[in-house]
Amino acid sequence: MTDIEAKGATLEEINQHWDWLEQNLLHTLSVFDNKDDIASFVKGKVKALIAEETSSRLAEQEEEPEKFREALVKFEARFNFPEAEKLVTYYSCCCWKGRVPRQGWLYLSINHLCFYSFFLGKELKLIVPWVDIQKLERTSNVFLTDTIRITTQNKERDFSMFLNLDEVFKIMEQLADVTLRRLLDNEVFDLDPDLQEPSQITKRDLEARAQNEFFRAFFRLPRQEKLHSVVDCSLWTPFSRCHTVGRMFTSDRYICFASKEDGCCNVILPLREVVSIEKMEDTSLLPNPVIVSIRSKMAFQFIELKDRDSLVGSLLVRLQRVHANHPVHYDTSQDEDMQTSPVFHSTSMCGDHKFGDLEMVSSQNSEESEKEKSPRLHPEALISVFQQSGSQSPDLRMSREQIKISLWNDHFVEYGRTVCMFRTEKIRKLVAMGIPESLRGKLWLLFSDAVTDLASHPGYYGNLVEESMGKCCLVTEEIERDLHRSLPEHPAFQNETGIAALRRVLTAYAHRNPKIGYCQSMNILTSVLLLYAKEEEAFWLLVAVCERMLPDYFNHRVIGAQVDQSVFEELIKEHLPELAEHMNDLSALASISLSWFLTLFLSIMPLESAVSVVDCFFYDGIKAIFQLGLAVLEANAEGLCSSKDDGQALMVLSRFLDHIKNEDSPGPSVGSHHAFFSDDQEPYPVTDIADLIRDSYEKFGDQSVEQIEHLRCKHRIRVLQGHEDTTKQNVLRVVTPEVSILPEDLEELYDLFKREHMMSCYWEQPRPVAPRHDPSRPYAEQYRIDVRQFTHLFQLVSPWTCGAHTEILAERTFRLLDDNMDHLIEFKAFVSCLDVMYNGEMNEKIKLLYRLHIPPALTENDRDSQSPLKNPLLSTSRPLVFGKSNGDAIDYQKQLKQMIKDLAKEKDKTEKELPKMSQREFIQFCKTLYSMFHEDPEENELYQAIATVTTLLLQIGEVGQRSSSSGSCSQEGGEELRASALSPDQDSVFADNNAGKIPQDSRTFTEEVEGDWTVSLEHILASLLTEQSLVNFFEKPLDIKSKLENAKINQYSLKTFEMSRQSQPELKLNNV
């Protein structure tokens, strides 16, 4: 092993590999009983690692490596999935079963995690759908310090001994995230273009997606922004008079830089701000330099760029494209702007948009007639109009503001004053101190890069306002209801000026993004944005928050907020272990903190304090909310630990938050929505928001964007599966009282039903009949199956197996259950049908069978319904033998008529009469019964019994036909056999809108082809009751548990067989 490694590696690498083997193998060898097993295990492990290392090297090449093709062949042979199940990658590893490791191969495909092992003569196959995984985490066990644990509903499985565990875990995490969001969270989830077709996903695509998501989260860029390259380089930072080592990120519309030292220096350069990108002369001091010049007369010097020529070429192409799509118009009023806004002057302008004084094109460039028609947008921040006078003296208030403005002005001179500024730890400290009110709205625009959206879309907001105002719908009603609840204590929203601006922004955003529309808490956030920013600026700030900075927060299920709550729970356990230990159920704290995330503390803290939190949020993103939340809990840890219940904990936190003040605020204190909690007898101690924010950065500010995104990915699985469990429990809660199936069996049936839906999502092209899972629908309607899926399930779990006839019976059952004719059925209908089959009385089972052989279940075009059952047992000339002479036959017929009459009298009068069965339908009914008896232990006796009953019923039908044709239908044969179609009640088991009346086309068919030959349900039931063997067959207890166990084992293989059978005709056709 050492010699082999030495040929292709350094001594350092050899030592590294041997260290890995010692750490991962030696601890496990003690579980084996003899030396041969140990030798076999070690030899197999080393060979697998060498093979995997070779394959990973090949995988780095452009073409598909031969090793991967070999693995693909083995994957297909071992697991027999349909062709649509694409293998993404594979690894050698061990799967632990108790204390014993099983060496084998882990296959990661687009929908499943699979493991195969053939070790010590035993074969092991595991198939775990990604959509079943409830937890994916790195952990440790008794023998190994680093394993990957997969948790499903009932099991935990540990995998270890990977050559590169970090890579494996990241790929698993990406596959689980993509698959769960694609199948369970398609409400707002938009896949990257490269991942739109799951069958095309590769390992490289997943790695690119992970890098792309980190890039967008780190710089808080739009979701549609696609990362093109990441290059190591150094950037000249004039404030430190040196080159700072870091990485350059280039995307569709941005050039970004992040220093290797976290927080040292970040830069965001929108390409619309870039004037030129030039290569400079290469020297020993400045290797491969590139100069990026922007319109505010700044230049950024990057050096040590690899592949400089191709990088600059691609950047120039994108630069030209950006300027072609959004042409830049220079404004001649620079001098005036410099005088009015010395801090924010920039030569970067687009139309009438300027960084110093952003004017709205819709109010300047439109004609006078349009001005009269369109609503007048508010031209300035509301706080400048509705400025309140505080308790402090004006001189003191202005002096504090001037000091802050002076500090910011000095910073702008040294670090830049536009969106392209150098973002360092120094600016973070300035933000934590509180942004001056006169600069707050402008800086929010710069930090969030909403200013780029604003400048890139002149007139967009004005047009949206015109299109959306005056339209009435559910969203606008919700907005109107919440308008006067938005900061009602502030004078800006106590008059129509503020209310009208708020209405326009919220309505315009709902019109722009109907997927989100309007959610509660958006009104509070937008109110604050309008206080410090102009109306159009506030709109683009709202866009930045909802679509970039708080993704998936504002939708039907607020998944994003719930994910961050779950992340917050883990951070509490990590940073405040004593509090976490005392509060056994952290979900109570998480529920209290929901409003912290949804409103950025605006609804639970005095406004003048909460806006300082929003300052930090716009600069640092969600990290600021996490660390401030931890600081709040730490400050109240003693009170929370002594609280007896959730209500007392809520009181402790509410009183604390309501007494957070901002000593530097120029305005008066504006209470929060929780002020009613603070009516104390004794004065409550006041906390300064600046101190709280400083503590949050010092004690809890070590969380990186990468760590937060990893935690979000981990907890999104938990949250989505929590929603799935809620859906399941609500469906079962409704269904359980209505059926006799045991709750544990119902749960198994639900899992089978859902898995059937999922398998079609995995491998079949989307069909218009069977839509994807829609979490916005009522619980019972979230999973529905079509006729093909139902047929598959019917074959697995129905006790009425009829050989080749089973599929036909399943299709008829589906038509019967599909009462609204949308070609989909829900779980409740499926289980109600099974309940009759397994637990119904004999008359209920016969009634169900009867209904399966009349319209709408049986149609003229029904498969196999046109061929009569050619069997001598169906002869009407066959004598009826009941142990009596033939002469007694007439007496028996009288006795049978009396039996039918008595049965009809006992029938529930409120139940709607079913249509009578024609001869064609009766033949199909008999055929089904014959098929059901096949391979039954009492098969011969049942055949004789059904032959006798069939012959009798055929004679009854002929008697009725003759009576009808002669017009002498007797009263005793008429009252009980006439359909009582006027009864208003529906059937108690299956709701059928057509019950009690035969459709017109069916009646015509019966009259024309078969005349008036009919039998009723009562005839059939009474006749079947005469044969004890038939009664025994329908009343014998049936075991659903064995069916369920068998279904769980065979559901995948049956689906695969069905799909391969469907593809055969296509192959034959292609060959022809």
From TrEMBL:
TM segment ranges: none
Organism, as annotated: Lynx pardinus (Iberian lynx)
Biased amino acid composition, Low complexity: 961-972
Annotated SMART domains: GRAM, TBC
All residue ranges annotated as the Rab-GAP TBC domain in the record: 434-621
Coiled coil (residue ranges): 889-920
Pfam families per record: GRAM, RabGAP-TBC
Residue ranges of the region described as Disordered: 961-986
Entry keywords, A to Z: Coiled coil, GTPase activation, Repeat
GO BP term, example: system process
Single GO MF annotation: GTPase activator activity
CDD domains per record: PH-GRAM1_TBC1D8, PH-GRAM2_TBC1D8
Alphabetical list of InterPro entries matching this protein: EF-hand-dom_pair (IPR011992), GRAM (IPR004182), PH-like_dom_sf (IPR011993), Rab-GAP-TBC_dom (IPR000195), Rab-GAP_TBC_sf (IPR035969), TBC1D8_PH-GRAM1 (IPR036009), TBC1D8_PH-GRAM2 (IPR036016)
Name this protein carries in UniProt: TBC1 domain family member 8
Biological role stated in the UniProt entry: May act as a GTPase-activating protein for Rab family protein(s).
